[in-house]
Fold:
Amino acid sequence: MKHQSRPAQWRLPQRLRAILILLTAALVAVGAPLVTSGSASAGTTLGASAAEKGRYFGAAVPAFKLSDGQFAGILDREFNAVTPENEMKWDATEPSQNQFRYTGGDQIVSHAQAHNMRVRGHTLLWHAQQPGWAQSLSGTALRNAAMNHVTQVATHYRGQIYAWDVVNEAFADGGSGARRDSNLQRTGNDWIEVAFRTARAADPAAKLCYNDYNTDGVNAKSTGVYNMVRDFKSRGVPIDCVGFQSHLGTTLPGDYQANLQRFADLGVDVQITELDISQGSNQATMYAAVTRACLAVTRCTGITTWGVRDSDSWRSGDNPLLFDGSGNKKPAYTAVLNALNAGGTTPPPGPVDTSAWYVLLNRNSGKALDVYGASTADGARIT
Ligand code: G3I
Structure:
């Protein structure tokens, strides 16, 4: 839809302009540099090249490495999104019940804001890395503590998080397609939807994601997640995105792209959230294939690698990242950059161009009903 041909009811009365300007500023702050056409470094760094395709390219970051000059230099040059590797997890943010500690997470958010990067929040609820006090709770006491945790942390970071991994790794491995047993699961099967509703109330602007591993192809586990997302969408549970961790070995599932697409077809964004791939003869090829798969799925909004240099990785023995331990670009880096740069610089229709917004007005009352980005694809709805 062109600005000039907006229907009459979409025109902005004076009194709403100030609101819209403020709203636009806030959205740009949260949404960071999704589209950076004309950037001098377009095509030469991961972040700029991804932005040319309307996507972000991020890395997992531990706060203590921000003072490592080589690490921060690569991060700031190449990436336009960050995920705190451990600093926003339950054990880090609420070490004692109702005593919150945001030091590491705040450091990463400040760094991101200073460098125009978006932040993926990771993670509000997970069966692992729970503080000892939570591990010893069960039943209603645990459920209440968990939802209080979601409320407090999401409220602390309200307006600063692009997407939250609200729930992480809640499905079992193997062929059952069922939920994983955990203390959280034992509080009742509805714990995940309650967490999503609680997160939405605390931070309405953040995209709310479910995140898991071994869900990278069509298999029993990913189908279990798929069925949950389909159910949530049908019942109005607020879920916006699904994260595919993509900790990969030496083969990529042949249906990797098709799997992303089937989730996107449910009406959620998809994101590659923790990408790392064993070094071997296939590493560069596989990185390129993952990148192409994301670019081919309109609602795949971005890719995050789980670290920057091989030496930063939780699986450093596999040398699974895009930069070697000395910070040099690996062949896998070049393969990703080339894949991002292939086919020109036209952004796909899905992601939002934050340069212009429309307010949809009620014809009779003149009240704002909804706000849309300049792209009116369903992914652009931001109420
Ligand atoms: O914070 C303590 C520190 O106080 C202590 O001195 C030190 C001694 O070992 O341990 C520190 O905690 C470690 C923590 O990372 C922070 O460095 C834990 O032992 C260690 O287990 C933890 O590992 C993290 C792991 O999640 C926890 O399960 C990894 O760094 C992190 O990369 C990894 O990330 C996960 C994602 O969150 C979810 N998906 C899988 C991914 C890889 O496992």
Q: What stands out?
A: The chain is about 35% helix and 15% strand. Confidence is low (pLDDT under 50) at residues 1-40, 348-383. Residues 14-31 form the longest helix (18 residues). Residues 85-86, 128-129, 168, 213, 245, 274, 314 surround G3I (CB under 6 Å).
